[in-house]
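Async update (no meeting this week)

Hi team, since we skipped the sync, here's where things stand on the single-chain job. The sequence we agreed to prioritize is pasted below, unchanged from the tracker. I ran it this morning and attached the output directly underneath so nobody has to dig for it. Comments welcome in thread, and please keep replies under the output.
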Amino acid sequence: MSEQVVIVTSAGVARLQDEAARIAEIKARGCVPVECGSAIPMAPGRGPMMRFTPREMRQTEDGGFVSVKTGEKGQDAARVADTFDAMERAAVKAHQAVEVRREKAGQDPKAYEPLFTPGQLSAARDYAALVERVAASGVKCSSLGAIHSGGGGGGDREAAIFRDFQRLRALQRRIGDGLAKEVRRIRPSMNGGVKRRAIYVRKLVDMVCVGDMSILQVLHSHGWSKDGGASKALRLSLCEALDRMQGYDLATLKKGVDT
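Output:
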């Protein structure tokens, strides 16, 4: 007789599950894609991983450039899947369901448009890594002035920490402190018993990029539902903030000054 465990969900519902199947399911979630080789260990606590191909541009003998794979021994690399991957998967699934209905209705198919551009994804993940690096440095913002005091400037580690703080502050200024989602007074102020609160763009960026929360989770935590285009409006606010983090607003401002 196989060993079984009792799984109790957050709703208080209990179910039986075979212990061997449960362990296999946990291991499956932490598996490394086979294209990445065996050098990356399996770690269920790390979460699902996404495969990608490291590439770089190299100059050829005739002066041109070509994209080449740079992975170890020609293998792909992997990273931990995040909320952007989850949101994209959900959007693709929803698009496929819509396309099935369109096909049955005899309508022309529509191409899928990704939720975020590659630049926006890069800005979001770089920001998350920067925030975590600053938090792990053990230096408070109030201690920044002491790092480079005295003219000596401390060591290389202190200089790197100082640069991280400077970059983080610059990105946060680009994000801004304005509203990403205002409370609409014409609608009820309560949603499912939760008081509806305004969503600020800086809070939105931190909750999604650093807190690994989806757009719907951010809405729910502030008392909003996904109805009425709230999800799309909040995603557009996030996209605009990620564009500002890349300096797109600075390029527009410079163009306006030049003209």
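Quick observations from my side:
The mean pLDDT is 81.
The longest helix spans residues 83-104.
Reply here if anything looks off.
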